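Troubleshooting: if your tokenizer reports a length mismatch, compare your output against this known-good record of 489 residues.
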Amino acid sequence: MGGATILRVEATPRRNTVRALTEWVLLCGVAFLLSFQLFIPPALSVADTNDFQKLAGKVCLGQYPEPVRFDYTAMRWRFSPAACTAWPFRSSAELALHAAVGLNRLFTSPVDFDLRWMGAVYAALFLASFVWLQRSLRAVPFAASVAAQLGFPIVACNAVYVPYLNTFFFDAATLVAITASLVGVSVLFLRAKVQIGAVLLTAASLTVLAASKSQHSLLAVVCIPVFWMRRGRGIFPPLWMRACATAAVLSGAAIAVGTTPPSYGGQAAFSALFYRILPSVPNPARYLAETRIPPSYIRFVGDHAFSPGAPVADLEGRVRFSKMFGESDLSAFFLRHPVIAARMLLIHLNEASFDRVRMKTGALAHRLGNYERETGKPPQALSHFFCFWPAVKHAVIAGRPRLYLAYILGLVAAAWLLAPGVPGMRALLATFTAMLAVSLMMVMTDGVESGRHLMIFNYLLDLLAAAVAVFALCHTRAHRSKDPSEARP
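Known-good structure output:
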């Protein structure tokens, strides 16, 4: 979440040279981390969960020579009329898809598709976000700038997140867009002079974020106040530009949410109610009676949407169930039963504490492998490249949801306590805290796939951890500079 503060440091030619060289070294480091994981064999990806066709089907791409899911990834795809699907979902990920398809046809083949072209497009955008971060940090002291630039790749450029760029998951677009959005939002909140270019880039990033996936649209919407908090700054974009930026972000959210079929939410709500909630209560029939669901559905307690014979196994069943019980009904259910809501929260926090995707159904926990079958790796094998920070977290909080909750609350509190007292910082922290809350809240309506959806929540939390480390460094240096015992004679 590092952005530029309004602090200025004295510039000299030597300092500028050292700063520029440091930036180039760190940029090359980030480029290496991305390239090594995405393009150097064995290239990393994340296994399909039957979701890839929501995007790949729009350009008639299917896996070749045969579909593989969950256990292994697949880099080889082929254009075929049989792979065309008419999913109603619309996402800003389609922009990356068409760019990747164009590059593939230009440099690879008009028939076969190499999934690494998706990684190339997303990696370029990810790198551009890092460059923007570097430029924004030129307004802060050198030590803080270097700390922020080092912290970002440590928490963000490992095998937990980077393999998503080599996929057709909508979440990949979310991951890239949220990175650029956070830099832009930080700049707009903290800069003393807000330039038009920064507003346009921030609006574009937030619009892509809003349109990336319906579950993540609110993350962009809660950032809209950044266009309106002028705080007496003399150089600030005109009203019409801020209104257009706001309209663009809301339009992106409307596209993602409006093209998501109600049946999709009904499927998730079914799993949440029948697989997570009703098996844990003493009298499931009493709770089922609070809904419009027929009493005969009591026989499905313990089933999830992917169980054999589940009433939401086909489109007709999902549509029918969504009319009886959907996401809004589930939200109302949680409001009536806060204890059940708290229990559900702990279930999701337990999934999120593992950092890697888990689709746990009963005793089976799919981990979604990072490797192709041809590598000879065992099914669902995960890469641990550059995973020092994830390994530390896993050793401490994995499978300990209450400890993980304490970590979340402690990290947020530390950010508020240690943040520099510069204008706009409190507004930035409030926005970021709201994004964390929204990201966690959105998975409360999911019963099976919360592990994957909470990937963005973990990404936000890791960025906050890096920011807290920078805040602590600045706080320590400021304290030392005021210590009379360290003053030179």
